[in-house]
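Researcher: Please translate sequence to structure tokens.
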Amino acid sequence: MIALRSNDTKGISPLGPLYLATALKKSGFVPKIIYKKESEIDQIESEIADFKPDLVGMSVFTGYLNKQYVELSRQLKDKGYLIVWGNAHPSLLPKQVLAEPAIDFAVIGEGEETLVELMKNLGDNQNYKHIASLGFKDENGKIIINPRRNFGDMDDYLIDWSLINIEDYIIPYFSNKYSRTLAVVSSRGCPFNCQFCYNLVFNNRRWRAHSAEKLIANLKPIIEKHQIQAIRFLDDNFFVDKARAFAIARGLGLPYFADSRVEFVDEKFVADLKATKCREIMFGFESGSDRILKEVVQKGTTTRDIIRAVTLLKGSGIMASGSIVFGLPGETKDEYKETMDFIIKLLEINQNLAFTCGWFLPYPGTGLYETAKIKGFAPPQKLEDWDGFDRWRNDYKMAWVDWDYEQAVKYSRQVVHLLALAHKRNIPILKMILKKRVARLNFSWPLDIYLFSKLRNIYFFGGQRNFLARFIQRILIYIVKLKQNNNIL
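Model: Translation complete:
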């Protein structure tokens, strides 16, 4: 099983392939996981040749790296290997995936049981039609998509950690305070209705989870053997069942990081987070516009809910992180600015905030995918062309947005990151510059943005005793005066 990651991505373990490999091993097969950076793709063919697999699987998400997966599939197909794609993209667009001659099968939805059944029937074409959640091509090349199966019990496939070298995937987190952090998943899916989210199709709004007892038993030996200092839960929503979530946190007894929803936050929830050593909690803020939250995203929350959560977490010692989605279909330039202003408002309430800002990606089958098409989005007709939909790119193109967004795409994420840093470290000059930029939506002459983006390591802002900090502060004062004199801001 092959999974790719970008060159700058930290080495979080390949959890999806790990679950699949666990299921295969449990059924008597011998799996191998190949997890490579984009720059290491050339190493894959030789590893596969040495292993001599009956089937090569690829874990493919929508967007970035799709082109590389297609090219790799073609390269391996030319060598005679059978190819199966799984994960979100083949689940959202199985027919387009199978229209690619290099791809033989597509697994739709979660794949443990489907992949095991495929391996048991590999080469018996007549049986493929009986495998739920499988897409394939019959003897005449016709694409067949079988009905989806019901979701399985996650406890049947607790990860077999011996399938990877865990030391390769222990990473630092939280400003390197915890140098030995392990990323895990305790649940799948999300029961909520956010109209941009792939969960609407991939998981059918169904949430299911490991039991607290079995997950703790699975992880405790790994924690002890590898001296794990913290856990990062990568669940879409760790706290759907709060009692289960806090039981896991108490049972593991380590600092942790997890996702939740703002309406879950009350005084008791914050107290439980503190008592169980939560260090960071991530929310989907999405927008600072109540119209966007209600009519476009259909989030089920309001800006008042966000403000309340951020206020309750203030002084708790728990960092709150919020994801922001810019460029949603129907979002106006004024609503984009409303969100930028809202970010500043939240930072003035609670300085212990961080933000992850990206641009809308139209996941096929979601409500906003259809809205984006109405507003001018033409879905790629070739599988590899989905590669252009990388919501983190500085030159991201959005046909569904009808205002001039190029400068916003290029600089918004940097500005938000620097705003959070300026408030956390209390850098008045930087706060003043960036607030003026946001107030006027002016990203021209971005010398200050460029300078601080290069020098944003917190060490540089460690105080007046640091010569470099004083030097940078003088440069900033000069920039402010220069811009005031030229009326640039």
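Researcher: Any highlights?
Model: Residues 44 and 437 are 46 Å apart (CA to CA).
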